[in-house]
Amino acid sequence: MRLKTPIEAPSLEAALELLERLPVPMYVEGRDGRCLGVNAAWEELFGIKRERVLGKGVRELSPQNPEIAEKHAIKDRELWAQPGSQSYDIPVVTPDGRRRETVYYKSTFPPGPEPAGLVGAIFDVTARKRAEIALRESEERFRAVVDSANEGMLVYDRRLLVVSVNRAAERILRLPAAELIGKPGFTSLLPCIGEDGAPLGPDERPTLTTVHAGQPQTDRVVGVQRSDGSVTWLSVSTTFLRRMDETEHYGLVSTITDITAQHDAETRLRESERRFRNTFELAGSGMAHIGMDRRFIRVNRRLCEILGYPEAELLQLTGRQISHPDDLDVINEQRPRLHSGEVDAVRLEKRYLRKDGSVVWVKFSMTVERDAEGRPLYEIAVYDDITAQLDAQLRLRESEARFRQTFELAASGICHVIDGRFVRVNRSLCEILGYSEKQLVGKHVKDVSHPEDRDVTDAGRARVRRGEIEAARFEKRYIRGDNGAVVWADIAVAVVRDVFGVPQYEVAVFDDITERKHAEAAARAAHEELERSNAELEQFAYVASHDLQEPLRMVASYTQLLSRRYDSKLDQDAREFMAYIVDGATRMKQLIEDLLAYSRVGTKGAHFRPVAAEAALRRALFNLRAGIEEAGAVVTHDPLPTLPADEVQLAQVFQNLIGNALKFRSASVPRIHIAVAEGPREFTFEVRDNGIGIEPQYYERIFMVFQRLHDKGEYPGTGIGLAICKKVVERHGGRIRVESRLGSGSSFYFTLPKERGEG
User: Residue 78: how many CB atoms within 10 A of its CB?
Assistant: First the structure.
């Protein structure tokens, strides 16, 4: 290197000689900014001989590029102001117009605050700059391609942290790249699940499983759960990033594809297939796929039940093999039109033979499944067992025939009524009302009703139509159409409704009760006459008993007076005759009183009310206390119930039965027990004694008026007591009977209802 400089020193010359040999373009600049020397490499770079530049400033060296010269001047001033070293990028334009990208390195000398000059080295980085530009352009092209891809891409470093994210990944994951960079993938930021719906654990991350497996993974399905409850389904493929000729990876790249629509479609397809299988297998109709060779290729459970064959056996058969002989060609006649597409489906009814030989009727429908070109693949057949339906239709027709016959031949009048008008009537109703069928149909029911009974049925029929009651019964009068006579009818009315419960028409049944009504009227008249007669008879009985008793009292009184006054003057026969007179009068008086009591059982009884039977028994025992004490009798009883009764009459029953037990006692001490047994609807009382007993042939006779089994001299009485008991018990709605063995005592049983209205 040759210098033109005031700096002269052997050491500097040696240094410059050293720079001359360097392959890097070098130059030396004085403090005044003028060039002091350049080396050969500088000359080669700029294509200028050093003689042309020595002593010149930077502006003189770059007159055609003043902006470059200005930057050099600025940098020089900065270096002079701050001695040391500096570097900067700057282009170089040679005199021949070539542009080179360079890096200038400058350093002041000698060291210290007062440098004498600076030395500069120029490095040509044109090739590197061009490579960097090419690399940048390549990267930009790659980024453009990656960002325009539909698949998301995530690049991971060796630590499995995200270092790069494309736009598709941001869109698919709904996360910005800034949130993903530096994280262990999207599964660490979003709740994820596997294809089975189970949460994805940290060890199940696609990148981690790829590293553990040591080989790429493709199409792994991962679901991302969204806050709205939806799931974004992704297909994730992960592979290693390796440099050429290196076995170790320096990172991984994952591609993610949104397969939500595909996954949902597959799910719906699987669900549809499942529903189809369920529908096919569990259908209430028999279903089959039939090959073009007519053999069953698939059958469901219901078809096996209809035809009575196991599935394995049915799949070996054709429909023709199990068809009824009379129906062999019913389907085959229509198959050509179905296969050719002339008709979409075949529908008919035909018979098959079950495995057990029985006949089954089916409603048969068939269509054809075709390929993409429209060629038939197989037949789809549906079988509905209508055997029971056809049987029901047959029974319905038979029932309708029976109904028509019953309707027409019924002894009762029957009609159908709509809006109050007859729409159908039978022969008996025409006979009851005195009209022909033609006259009656269309006529309003009220037009044939008695004027006073036209509205009798309105309220009841309205309740039936509203569904408050199922049927209503009435008795009303009609006017016959042939002779104008009044006819009484007992009518039952119901409503026929449709399947929705809407009334369609009324059905009424008429029974002619005219004769019964006339009989009831006659019975009422007779009853009224009987009541009047009974009242007169009761009055007569009372008067008769009073009028009869008065002469008897006079006979007895005057006979007893004669006996007292003239006893000493009368012989024994006269006294005996007078005693007979008094005894007869007394017995006649008792007989009259008993008859009066018997007649008043049904007419003078009190209303029934709850009565404690023990209270009625105590009253009877009080009335009989003298007789009980005289006989030394023992009277016991069970706990007695409370029941509806006439207390006085119930006491009369106890008194008469216990009185009889005292009267007809045996030689032993009288023992009398009153027991009771409760039944579902009544109480059964028993009055049991140890008296002389009764022979069976007299069981009915003793309950009749004036029926005595013993001489009145042996056992006193009028023979009316048990008749009174029978009449009282029957008034209460009960029954009385006796069981006895001669010499072993008797048991009198009588029943009284638990519940009863007033007597």
Answer: 12
